[in-house]
Amino acid sequence: MKLAVIAFTRSGCGYAMKIQKAVEAEGNQCEICGKGREAGAWGIPAAEESLKDWTGRQSASQDALIFIGAAGIAVRAIAPFVADKASDPAVLCMDEQGRFVISLLSGHLGGANELAEKIACICGAVPVITTATDAGGRFSVDSFARREHLYLDNLKLAKRISAEVLENRTIGFYSDFPWSGELPLELALETQTELGISISLDENLAPFPETLHLVPRITVLGIGCRRGTSKEEIEALVKKVMDRNRLSMHSIGKVASIDLKEQEQGLLDFCEAWDADFVTYSREELEEVACVDGFSESAFVKEITGVGNVCERSALKAAGQTRLFQKKTAEQGVTVAAALVEYQVQFS
pTM of the prediction? Predict the structure, then answer.
């Protein structure tokens, strides 16, 4: 997670440093600054740009913004940049005495509610959560999707589900995957309900008349390609492979290849377009990969890369598996294979 913190008093800057130390210790990135006439003497970098410019820049690049000061300052600062709950960063506000941490924006999908509780714990503050489902201790499909790293396909339907939950109505539940923990009381394992949730890699599956699709991002694609292959050429074959296997494109969590391709622009562009992590492996690492069904080896590929199959081996390596979901498919100089990361739904 990438966070940006801005404080408006000397006391607030002390809390900013405390937050930075704690969140960076967990492997997150945290940029802090002070804003005010005497900011240069407060022990952290002073923000030279206007608050509006700072907020606009950080909103576009950070996962979360934390204002340590008056809530009114935070509200006015973020107002011009609020777009929609699917893309807005989490926004928090904490008073400069560290007494309260308020989740202001993107409480569920952006993770502001969860972050408010974490920051409150760091600073010894009280988290202030105002979203209805959280305040009432009810199941929140937005928060659940975020926690489980699921793609949520319909925000309007998610909002309706939250409204139904608050009215004590039962929501249908279907899953292609096993789960651990107790099913929330608001969900029922039946298909007679009008409205329901489906956890599946198939976005066309409709167990309910109105189905909210939650897609686990567990598909790992192994991709090989000729030098200079465009994103569009890669995407064309990937879509064919995914459609053939009834896999949502939104289930792509990772793309893997050989290290010779780590700067291949088409692959980088494809991963950016689908928000997928890109990993590469050496020839030696790929040669060590095993497949229970064997590999589709190519003498030509081995001559070029040193290994007889790039896409199948890299898919299995990145997924931590020994069995492919889809073996190599080749077209126009692009090869694609797919593997699935083992997944189980977690209800806490």
Answer: 0.73
The answer to whether domain 141-216 has CATH 3.30.420.40 is no
Q: Give exposure, 209-231, as e/b (b: 16+ Cβ within 10 Å).
A: eebbbbbbbbbbbbbbbeeebeb
Residue tagged 């622009």 (tokens) = 265
d(CA 62, CA 31): 9
Give the DSSP H/E element, type plus range, for residue 23: helix 10-25
Compute the average pLDDT of residues 109-138: 81
DSSP of 265-300: HHHHHHHHHTT-EEEEE-HHHHHT---TT-----HH
Task: Say how many CA atoms lie within 13 Å of 341 toward its Cβ.
Answer: 18
Encoded amino acid at 265, one letter: Q
Start-end of CATH 3.30.420.180 domains in the chain: 219-340
Predicted confidence band of residue 193 (pLDDT cuts 50, 70, 90): confident
Beta bridge partners of 31: 4
Tokens at 186, concatenated: 């608001």
Nearest-angstrom CA–CA distance, 279 and 141 = 31
> What's the rounded Cα separation, in Å, for the pair 27 and 15?
19
53-76 pLDDT, tens digit per residue, is 999 999 999 999 999 999 999 999
Q: What is the pLDDT of residue 86?
A: 72
Query: Taking all residues of the chain, what is their mean pLDDT, rounded to a whole number?
Result: 90
- Tens digit of pLDDT for each residue in 215-269? 999 999 999 999 999 999 999 999 999 999 999 999 999 999 999 899 999 999 9
Q: Could you tell me which CATH number the domain at 219-340 has?
A: 3.30.420.180
Instruction: Give strand pairing partners of 340.
Output: 219
CA distance linking residue 304 with residue 308, whole number of Å: 9
146-159, pLDDT tens digit by residue?
Answer: 888 999 999 889 98
